[in-house]
């Protein structure tokens, strides 16, 4: 008899209180999972669990499992025939069958479940690209599976106690089609023939229990893995499919493999990945005092990955955006991937060897890995060839600030009551602000003290779960033992940490200067104030101040500790003689704060930023001016003028990339609507001329071309792009080829044509077919989706909308994402306008019926922001007021939406006003 869970399609989160209850009783858990993972959409198998209990719990103990059905649940040999034991994603264990006092309990369950298409649990993907080739051979389908188990999606696949602090060893056997590879946390145990036979027998029996004809699975092979170390459930991993790989075995390092699906294996830069990984292992070994703690290290590119990457023990999964599909990657793109590689690797120690007790300490996990990746990338000698500087850290810090200035901001360390809340804190505070905090700690205590602290931390807590106090406590011990003269006797490290971690909001630092008649400084004050949002307070942090002379040469005042008691800090600048043109109170970017400039410095930066040699300072200015727009200290039109003036002087491609991305949002969100098309036009012309200049570095052209097509909207500019598409390259005025277009650029040009009513459908379709050719890859599929969704056709728009709000659809979350990205268009205001109101009508249903990941994607992609109406703001507020307390993730989304729209309205009005004044 099998039991199914009526609540399979409902979102139910795991409560902290339940986890604390289970932790009190359960220990020494092992999972033995024997699954058949066939092609198609279902899988099945047997799970055996061993555990001991400290004592019999006062209420019923349960496993977590979000599955279609279970059967043959036995507890210590007794079959449980109680239909209600499986409900609401839980399998309840009868107390009368459990044994207490440390005796071994044996549980076994047959499960039947379906693959998912939303990147949670066991995700399935069909590679149409490969299928074209393979369908001629035996009708083979290239189907790929991978798991994503963080935060609590392990129980979407396996019945487990899905919480980080019940670590368990697990053994896994997979029965799969013969041509598949399977990758998991440990290596395959080739000698385990007995276990292979047992697994095969187990899945055959499981098939018959669920009425599945095992012969229909076809020819199979059994992969049996070595038992894992004791690790948390969110770190287990299963990847299966016809993945291919390359291997590197080097003395002193674990065995490493890099996997990708067959049609993309040619797009891996194996050599660079292995080099970066090994450099990271060496660097972290020295800094953490422990060698890489696991047996092997596989890295695998998985299709439709739900985030950037995931640090599963010994089996890191990556999003395929990191593959260089058909393009020569820019240095910036390679640096970015190396950074992700080093981030995931750092988790092997911090997160995997020592794990947070509960999700409230997620930030420490993420900010630690984030900060360490930058530290390694800028310091490991083997990586100096990538020339990474801290300019690449700026986006992280500003991600933190941009969320810290919203009312949804939260303390870095915050209360998390269930895994639904945990899902919402994979955000700018946990990654960006947390990492900036660790950067401040590192600069404050110094490399040696931090290193001593980390050695002690890993020595003491390896294989265990910890809380924040364990981490800061260990650092404090190192600080107390080795000291730091700069900080003086009165500095209390623990109190200082508290002032950063348990509060929220960002501080503002701004200089107040009195000049002498000759332009030298009479008095320099740095004023610290609190930004409006959060539980804010003044904070102590150490800053460097740069004073620039008339030739833009800086001199520095270093290591000044800003007071957390008074707003005004009197800085001794008496040693500085001569005229000062610019003051930067956050030189070297050590501080986490909104930085303001005095009017003279601001004018000089705006006019002559290119004269500043230091790239980190230039990167800061680009970012800080953006924040000045957000705070309405300068208008969006002024920012636009600044970009036009400075972009042609900038040589660092990361800075250009960010500047142009910001400009794209600035134009569509923050400029007065009447200015949008005109400013796009100017920007396209500016960038086109820039590309054609002979003195531009080839690497600088990459971010320019990547962003260029977003500015083409007038018929003559689209015509220019079509001409380039025809010859496959951007050309100079005289027709010389200056930049070869990658496939993604060609697709961007096609995407320009589809929403435009001046081209007919026949032309559009012919162009699409010609550009995509026989490309059946997921990217090509998504391009088709975007193009189709962007057609200026009322009836078609309705169809697309209906597919987006259909919660029963079988389309993957990614395909729907591609559709959403083409839905709104400036040229179709009359067609898309009705959906602005419909969006608010349907939103509560979307929240109720679809996974939160889709809700977020739907919300951010389709929140109407082209036109701002007061009735929309009212609607958002009404929805928020009607949201019950237990839907805090939805409430937080709604309040963020309200704030973003309100901000947009004010910035547009401010720009219009300053424009009128100028006239
Ligand atoms: Zn991470």
Automatic annotation (TrEMBL):
SUPFAM superfamilies: Leukotriene A4 hydrolase N-terminal domain (SSF63737), Metalloproteases ('zincins'), catalytic domain (SSF55486)
Superkingdom assignment: Eukaryota
CDD domains reported in the protein's UniProt record: M1_APN
GO cellular component: cytoplasm; extracellular space; membrane
Short name of any one Pfam family annotated for the protein: Peptidase_M1
PANTHER family: AMINOPEPTIDASE, PROTEASE M1 ZINC METALLOPROTEASE
Requisite cofactors: Zn(2+)
Record keyword Protease present: yes
InterPro entries noted in UniProt: Aminopeptidase_N-like_N (IPR045357), Aminopeptidase_N-like_N_sf (IPR042097), ERAP1-like_C_dom (IPR024571), Peptidase_M1 (IPR001930), Peptidase_M1_aminopeptidases (IPR050344), Peptidase_M1_dom (IPR014782), Peptidase_M4/M1_CTD_sf (IPR027268)
GO MF term set: metalloaminopeptidase activity; peptide binding; zinc ion binding
Name listed for the protein in its UniProt record: Aminopeptidase n
Keyword Coiled coil in annotation: no
Organism expressing this protein natively: Stylonychia lemnae (Ciliate)
Domain ERAP1-like C-terminal as annotated: residue spans: 583-899
One Gene Ontology biological process: proteolysis
UniProt similarity note: Belongs to the peptidase M1 family.
Residues of the Aminopeptidase N-like N-terminal domain: 41-195
Keyword set, alphabetical order: Aminopeptidase, Hydrolase, Metal-binding, Metalloprotease, Protease, Zinc
